[in-house]
Amino acid sequence: MTERPLTLRSGAEALAAPLPPLLAEAEHLATTVIVGDHGRRRAGLGDTFWQYRPAQYHDERRHIDWRRSAKSDNQFVQDKEWQIAQSVQVWVDQSASMSYASRDDLPSKADRARVLALASAILLLRGGERVGLTGGLLPPKRGEAQAAQMAALLSEDHTDDFGAPVADGMLHHSRAVFVSDFLGDIDAVERALSEAADRDIRGALVQVLDPAEEAFPFDGRTIFESMTGAMRHETLKAADLRDRYLDRLARRKDRLAELARLSGWQFHTHHTGDSASAALLWLYSALERRS
Amino acid sequence: MWSLDPIAFGAPWLLLGLIALPILWLLLRAVPPAPLRRRFPGVTLLLGLSDDESQTDRTPWWLLLLRMLAVAAVITGFAGPVLNPQDDQPGSGPLLVLVDGTWADARDWPRRLDRIEAALDNAASDGRPAALVQLTDLPAEGPVFQDAQAVAQGVAGLVPRPHDPDPAAIAAWAATLSGDFDTFWLSDGVSRDSRAVLLAALENRGSVRIFESPRPVFALKPPRYEDGAISIEALRAQTGPDTEIRVDAIGLDPAGVERRLASEGVIFEPDAKAATLDLSLPPELRNRITRFEVQGLSSAGAVALTDDALKRREVALLSGGNDREGLELLDPLHYLRQALTPSADLVDGTLSDVLLANPDVIILADVATLSELESQDLQTWVEAGGLLVRFAGPRLAASDVSRDAEDPLMPVRLRVGGRSIGGAMSWGEPKALAPFDADSPFFGLAIPDDVAVNAQVIAQPDPTLADRVIAGLADGTPLVTRKDTGQGRIVLFHVTANAEWSTLPLSGLFVQMLERLAVSTRPAMPDMEAMEGTSWMPEDVLDAFGVLQDAGALPGVDGARLAQMTPAADMPPGLYAGEDRRIAVNVLNADSTLSATAWPARIPVEGLDVVRETPLKGWLLGAALVLLMLDILAALALSGRLRGPRAGVTAAIVVLAMAGLPTPPQAQEAESPAPVPEEFAVAATSNVVLAYVQTGNPRVDEMSEAGLYGLSNILFQRTSIEPAMPMGIDPETDELAFFPFLYWPVTADQDLPSREAYAKLNRYLRSGGMILFDTRDADLARFGSSSPEGQRLQAIARGLDIPPLEPIPQDHVLTRTFYLLQDFPGRHASRDVWVEAAPADAQAAEGMPFRDLNDGVTPVVIGGNDWAAAWATDETGNPLVPIGRGMAGERQREIAMRFGVNLIMHVLTGNYKSDQVHVPALLDRLGQ
């Protein structure tokens, strides 16, 4: 049984290998967005000064601001700005279909999805929010250590062909981010979204697609296989399928957008051929949006 | 071999393979292209989609056709097809291949060689021995029959000859024939008497086949000069409809490059055998013509060489007194011009310009001294065959030329001063001419009574003098002397070329003498008797293709043989040079005629065209390869591999494989063009620019630059001259003509200018430029004789064309061009500044303070006052170098500046101020 620690070790190292680059890339991406203050613009619990107001009867004596009160005959209390932290839960599709990249110079969809998710998590963490993963894998917490843990969990690859969003263990009234290519079963997405809507969870759907999936640049006699090879489709003239494929893809996107609209979510399609920061900006503003 | 009229097959059974093609069609048709596997996550969206067309699982018909064609090409190719198979009736017995090999053959010689090779190939494949004989180059005895392959190897070395075959030799050779053989005769298509004899002899031995080219034969007769035009007669052998040929006149252009000088069409009337072209050309062009050619015909017969009979001599006239303003009749060249204009082309210009034109004759009228460079060039020209004719005159008599030692450019030594006879102050009578000796070139010319000589230069008695005299006076003194130098000659007339010293130029004898001296001649073809015994060396000879070639070491030809004008092996057509003239021998002479061959009807005559066997195997296999390559592309396109992510790579590999070539080597970088001195020229000419000669000593150059800068500023402030920034120039490389004025500080270690630079400087000085030489040594040693700079200046000036000098006279125009000056100081204040000497006969007009020095700008000013230092200022105008002491020094600087202003004014306005002496006369004429 001498192999076991060794394989464990090497496996762990292989697993940890992408972590620093992933984190670094996500951090790098996150610096492109400047975080505004997360204040609520009204008095409440918080650390920063909001306003002075005359002391009322219900105010405890210890709350009186002596420095201000000494300037006049009245007694003043210092109100703080109301600051609350939100919980954001992230689900990233780690299935085999995400590992597709049509050209060598393009990142795979999974890479782009992880970077996007982690970068938005880092931004949120910096803004003082609590960030976690869905499915009870990582409960929402604050702090930088959470990002490292998230990175470790996101680096795993799953073996199933297509992934489905996991809506278990999500906190009520929190926010969520689902990143996937959404090429798998649409019903699973619908179920997850309705569950989220039940719990009053708002969030964003980010569909990451490869340019080849958007353009279908194929021709001739071809056998198309899914990434694990479990599904296949043979055609004699791939070019003839292009229009119908694109039609189906458009309908899939419409369906996703409609689902999102019904449940109060935001939907966005991102291509790996485009810049990641545009998608990050969209994602960040989608999460900032008040419902 | 199985034949289908134009095509035959080497292995016809292989063609049965074509039957397999339909089977292949069915097989290939059923097999669709192999599918391509692609990973694609979007497959979920594709599930359930079906293909619209169900036929694409079969190979498309056009791809099938492509492959069928490729396979068919391979099968046919290996079956060994041959285009135009040769299956002549094989003859038997030896074969004699007979070639005329004359100039008329040269027009399609390569095709004739092909035909000979084809005949020998056939003979070889039939196992017949063969022999190859050229009629213009007959072997000593009859044909020697060898293996035809061995004979074929000698075909490439066969060369046509630029002349006709010798009839006597042909008759002799025909007599030696023996044995039985067939003859294959490649005729050149020109009728000759010798053919009948030979044909009869050959027919006695076996069958004769004649091959004759249908291309017409054209030839040119020698050009003649008639009534101011050149007349050339063109001949053709075959009569027929009207035809036009173009005749080019070829010659050297002024740059010495051979080019077409004129081109005219010649039209043969229908059924006419001859046509004449009259070409009227300016003499300049006519003299350059070296030959006439029929355009596009490479044959010696189509070339007519010209010789001296068409030429007019080019005569350059130069006289000593260049800028004299004199009466026309006193011009030393006037009578020469009158005598020569009708019969020669005259060239004017400076000696160096004239030498470039390489005239036949140069006449120097009373030119005494030449610069070292010029006399060297002149000597080279004479030795290369030029004729130099000199006339005496006051200058020559006064100079030291050929006084102590014989000048290489003079035939004799001269005594001091010459003599004057029959003048007011002498005792004797004007002398008449003595009759010419028999060995004089003037022998036979009648001497008019009225030719008398008043004055002449006298030859120094000398052992060689007697040989050199070709004309003398009645008292025995030489009048004309001559010597040979190299290939050229130098002739001296001991009198002037105008009527000042003798009446000779006024007489008709003068013209005749010039003609005898070959100054002006139009030679006619000498007759046979005159040619007898002379020897003529070939200079250039024509080959059969009409190309002029150097004669090399060909032996000379006797004059009598040359006069026959019939080229043969011992006298190829070309240019032959005799003692004093050149004669052209052309393929045709003035009496030649051309006519086509007329063979008896029994002799088969075939055209030159022969179809050769062409194996088609390679072509067919190549076509199959191309088709298969196309098939690769088509298959890739059909299976979608020419699209999609890696399509570019695939396509590149396929294209590279088809091209079968590596990427071409990178083109060499274009050479960076040499810097164009255009900017320099623009900078130098857009304004007046003062220039100095760079000495290579940085301090001196800086001082020159600063000095000219200061002077330019002063000029700008005080005068209407507004110079631009001064420039430093190098006479070796820079163009001098842009600058009116050069300041040349002389340093002791300066390099002497090169030959080219001297030529440039001399041209500069002659064309009105001025150089201020400054030895900067205050002329301490007086006359610049022994200071190092002075010696250097002498060395530099030796090669320059500098006129006699004198210290600036009181009334020199330099003293009053802008300021009135009598001193010309710089940093030093020496008085010795030298300029061109005034003419000896300059006279002060009545009541005028100045002499009438009506000449040009002095080309040089020489001094040692270090003017640049006195002129030098920095950019703010502060002087750089202290001059003298106190106010006196400042005064000296001011005078130096004024000298600079005067100098530049003098350069730019010339003798304008000198003309002021005429102001009273002008005012007088205006009536005031």
TrEMBL record, chain A:
Superkingdom in the source lineage: Bacteria
Pfam families, per the entry: DUF58 (PF01882)
Domain DUF58: 51-252
Entry-linked InterPro entries: DUF58
Record-linked PANTHER family: BLL2464 PROTEIN
Protein name: DUF58 domain-containing protein
Organism: Salibaculum griseiflavum
TrEMBL record, chain B:
Ranges of residues in domain Aerotolerance regulator N-terminal: 7-81
Keywords: Membrane, Transmembrane, Transmembrane helix
Keyword Manganese: no
NCBIfam families hit by this protein: two_anch
PANTHER family, per the entry: BLL2463 PROTEIN (PTHR37464:SF1)
Cross-referenced InterPro entries: Aerotolerance_reg_N, Class_I_gatase-like, Double_TM_dom, DUF4159
Top-level taxon of origin: Bacteria
UniProt name for this protein: LytTR family transcriptional regulator
Residue stretches spanning the membrane: 6-28, 61-83
Domain DUF4159, chain residue ranges per copy: 690-908
Keyword Transmembrane: yes
Protein species of origin: Salibaculum griseiflavum
Extent of the signal sequence: none
